[in-house]
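Just scan this pair:

***
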Amino acid sequence: MDRAVELMDMLDARDRRARRQQELLEQYRLPLVSFTMNIAGPVKNSPLIRRGFRLGRTLLMGQLERMNAPCVFQEEWDEATGCQGFYVTDLPPKALKELTCALEDGTDLGRLFDLDVLTPDGVKLDRPVPRSCLICGGPARECARSRAHSVPELQARTRELLQTALNRRDAETAASLAVRALLYEVCVTPKPGLVDRANNGSHRDMDIYSFLRSAAALWPYFSRCVQTGRDTAANPAPDTLAALRWPGKLAESAMLAATGGVNTHKGAIFSLGLVCGALGRLDRGDWSRPERILSEVSAMAAGTVDRELSGLAAGRARTAGQRFYLAYGVTGVRGQAEAGFPTVLDWGLPALENGLAQGKSADEAGAAALLALLARTADTNMIARGGIDAQRETAAELERLLREAPYPGRETLERLDRSFTERDLSPGGSADLLALCWLLHFLKEEAD
């Protein structure tokens, strides 16, 4: 598809487009938007151009929905001569032209959009204001007539516009999904020992509103993680993790400021931040593949356990995670990340998605995923609150429970919640992994 086309190819494509426009106008007797991309040079289509076209289509569809004028018909062509879209709507032609001009003039990629509006009788409406040049900002028609700018200049500017806009869009999308994942995690109810919509579990210093404030404060961090991954994508994978360390520390400060000093999401800052960094390193088409994302996370985290835990002397252990490694060999979230979060991929995500596919609610599927994770993870929060024996006994109990009932009912979950709360147990590490499950699930939905 990414090949140069000849003048005759473009003339043929223009004629076929005109015939299709006429056919649709005769069939529907309604206004029509004909959408193509303004691409200089002989190569009119590529993965980057295609993504720009799809973004334009998404923006147009969103605005038509907002104006209560959804398409009654739409058709798209993806050819070597470029992407083309035909959209029939009952919005009055003048209002439709105002909308398309606003998209062309007021969005990041608008200068590359060519959104023609045809009235039901086939008249193409003119723009009230001429378009500006890609390069100099002057009248585009005059620059084109005088050939003021070379094709290589126009191609370079086109690539810059596409890459900048799509990178920003990717970062915003991933950050929004990461925050949504945190919100879904805290809202799953009931969750044994954890803050949820019903109660605060084993916690006396936080409630659901603490988590909402914290999640909202972390949106810029997740966006930055994606951009950091994109900026370091050409480097060895561990370089991305190194580049994420300072943004992670700043995110912890933002979290503490939002919650009044309470640690709500420190583990999620690490795990979801790693995933967002991996998304930045990957092609957008890989975002719907959890195994590919977590493989990239594993590559980024390679050597973390050796660097940060191996050779640690007992007297120099500062954190609970370091103490548990020395005492029990538990590598915690570092080991999970280095291994590519296997419990998420093998247990948590399947439990979540199978439950949703069976018609289970977000509460039911989410709680089952949490228990599946807790049954197979040495949760350091559980160890910190109840000791290694309590953690192991609880994991074994839950594994037996899930063999009999993969999706426990509300009464069972409430019983577990009371038991955890009475023993002051809180599976916070598994809750972070549940948020990761939600994020991977949302990324797959986004691609559908």
About this structure: The beta strands are 32-37, 73-79, 82-88, 113-118. The chain has 18 helices and four strands.
